[in-house]
């Protein structure tokens, strides 16, 4: 199951089941989920991999100098 949580009062993506295929990266699963629910996803490739800049209109640094997107 995948849940994208912006804050305790705002969930742009309902908790949902997304198929995880053998070899999928976290980003590939995120991309499928946001496409399925028509949620904006902004990302760019870096030397270290894909960097997610924003989801659903909320971007890095919008909530302060150390804010951004993480997964766990």
Automatic annotation (TrEMBL):
It comes from the Eukaryota. Residues 23-71 form the Transcobalamin-like C-terminal domain. This is Transcobalamin-like C-terminal domain-containing protein.
